[in-house]
Amino acid sequence: MTYLPFVFTYFFLLNVIAFTLYGIDKFWSQTGHERVSEKVLLGLAIAGGAYGAGMGMLLFRHKTLHRNFRIVIPICFVLWMLVIVFLYLHS
Hints:
Distance between the termini: 10 Å
Structural class: mainly alpha
Low-confidence stretches: none
Number of helices: 3
Number of strands: 0
Radius of gyration: 14 Å
Helix content: over 70%
Order of helices and strands: HHH
Strand content: under 5%
């Protein structure tokens, strides 16, 4: 049995969660609610949710001026794409 369906499910769910939390944090920032911590938002990208985090940043225009986010998320995206391609080619 191949492990690829589990890997893709992991990445899909993590990216949906990351995208959703960026939207929630943007909404909460405008309404004065308690915020999602930057460690959580960056941690999701590092754990594999970089695509969802990047799309959330762009669509919601959230955290786009923060240097850490502009650097870490694209680097994580490229690294995770390399991991996915490697896993796919060696499955």
